[in-house]
Amino acid sequence: MSIYDHLIHANQLDNIIVVFSDRSGQAKNLDTITNCLGLKLASTSDYADESTSCSAAMSDADGVYIEEFDIAVLKSNNEQSSQITSLTNNPDIESVEPDVIMTALSQLDYLSGLKDGLYSGANAAITQMRKRLTDANSTSEEIPHIPVNTKYENTKMATWGMQAINANTSYSGRGIKVAVLDTGLDLNHPDFSNRCLVSKSFVSNEDVQDRNGHGTHCIGSACGPLHTATRPRYGVAYDADIYIGKVLSNSGSGSTSWVLDGMRWAINQGCEIISMSLGSRTRVGQGYSPAYERVGRRALEHGSIIIAAAGNDSGRPRYREPVSSPANCPSIMSVAALDEDLGIATFSNAGKDPQSGREVDIAAPGVNIFSSWPLTGMYNSISGTSMATPHVAGVAALICEKYPDLRGTDLWQHLTRHAEPLPHSIMDVGAGIVQCPL
Amino acid sequence: MKLGQKKRYVITLKEHNDGDIAQVISSLAACGFTVERVMDDLGIVTGITQSNNIHVVKQIQDVESVEEDTQMGAQ
């Protein structure tokens, strides 16, 4: 069963996108839909007034034909799913795919918004979805399929996050250097007593000891132990070398100067993975920081990958905020957060800047994440794209161990190509949920 | 003339200048920019100056961009 079929069965789709070939005209295309499916479509050519809402146009029909792009957006209907799938055999139709665009634009009221959104994103989205479908079919033996209706729970053996990324592999991150740039680590935590730790503080008048908790939690998710005395497994790369760069103070904030210094240190230490669960809010159209982009690019050139949190400024479903800085840099991998249903976390930011072309690159567990915490509590469950980011960093370490020649840009591509696609907009979850190598 | 508020800035230099950063440092100092950190391997300089001095800093040869040092927070 293909991912497409899963989506249909799970009733996750609101709409289906049909892309016609260039050679067929509007009249023929509309006839194709009517004859094959018995559906009546509205056409954008019928709505000269661009203030007409898409939803209004669709309310009186079974879908909308967008003349400018030779694309039809059909309302999904389980009874017609097999007929819709059969459209793929029609020579005038290039593809039939889940409506990833409509999900992203569902909060836009106007047809002009739909057109703009399709114009800027449809080709990339459709190409990517097609590639994902191809990849998923061709590598189905390598990538375990995650049913879209999965509900994960913490067990005695492993947290829900470890289960969702398939952390139960033979790889441990041994020999790989993972830097976590954050509030430091509780150096007295027993779960890290036997680990290789290298540390440096870039915060004025503060040592590496974490008196906040955020850094200890993030390091736990990325590199926590395989076994604890009484708790489930919560760390991915349990045998990796841990490089602790304190760039955020014990109050949980820090300057760009400190962060840049920490990034430079991690690159020069030869860390293959640099995890940054930090950021600052951005506005749509703001663009990315040239300084962070410079460091991100240099990191890739030196065989390091920088992975950063997409940010927690959204309040879904009411509003979605753009990806934070520095995760919005093209050369820094941005990570969105998922909940236990593999839904998008309500706070998780989205790729919304058409000028920079930035999107979320990948997603990982980020809600109710159990991990290490400074002593007295020892453990804690918290939420954020901060929690999703070290999951990706840990997986990257396992991939580095499995493939010694895969670093930098190649590692980036491996992470995204082997992520499991999700039935959400790529603007929200990128390539999908990160997956450990088998 | 008001000097403007003192702020910390991050300056990114043009790529080709990475090997010859001394001249830029000298020019920055000459226009009242207090250099704090030089990351010559990255082509990045951080430091402090008055906010109304930034338009002068941006005119220095081989300066690609000038950004205010943004506060980062745990996410």
Automatic annotation (TrEMBL), chain A:
<dbReference type="InterPro" id="IPR050131">
    <property type="entry name" value="Peptidase_S8_subtilisin-like"/>
</dbReference>
<dbReference type="InterPro" id="IPR015500">
    <property type="entry name" value="Peptidase_S8_subtilisin-rel"/>
</dbReference>
<feature type="active site" description="Charge relay system">
    <location>
        <position position="182"/>
    </location>
</feature>
<keyword id="KW-0645">Protease</keyword>
<keyword id="KW-0378">Hydrolase</keyword>
<protein>
    <submittedName>
        <fullName>S8 family serine peptidase</fullName>
    </submittedName>
</protein>
<dbReference type="Pfam" id="PF00082">
    <property type="entry name" value="Peptidase_S8"/>
</dbReference>
<dbReference type="InterPro" id="IPR023828">
    <property type="entry name" value="Peptidase_S8_Ser-AS"/>
</dbReference>
<feature type="domain" description="Peptidase S8/S53">
    <location>
        <begin position="173"/>
        <end position="420"/>
    </location>
</feature>
<dbReference type="InterPro" id="IPR023827">
    <property type="entry name" value="Peptidase_S8_Asp-AS"/>
</dbReference>
<comment type="similarity">
    <text>Belongs to the peptidase S8 family.</text>
</comment>
<dbReference type="InterPro" id="IPR000209">
    <property type="entry name" value="Peptidase_S8/S53_dom"/>
</dbReference>
<feature type="active site" description="Charge relay system">
    <location>
        <position position="214"/>
    </location>
</feature>
<keyword id="KW-0720">Serine protease</keyword>
<dbReference type="InterPro" id="IPR036852">
    <property type="entry name" value="Peptidase_S8/S53_dom_sf"/>
</dbReference>
<feature type="active site" description="Charge relay system">
    <location>
        <position position="386"/>
    </location>
</feature>
UniProtKB/TrEMBL annotation, chain B:
<protein>
    <submittedName>
        <fullName>Uncharacterized protein</fullName>
    </submittedName>
</protein>
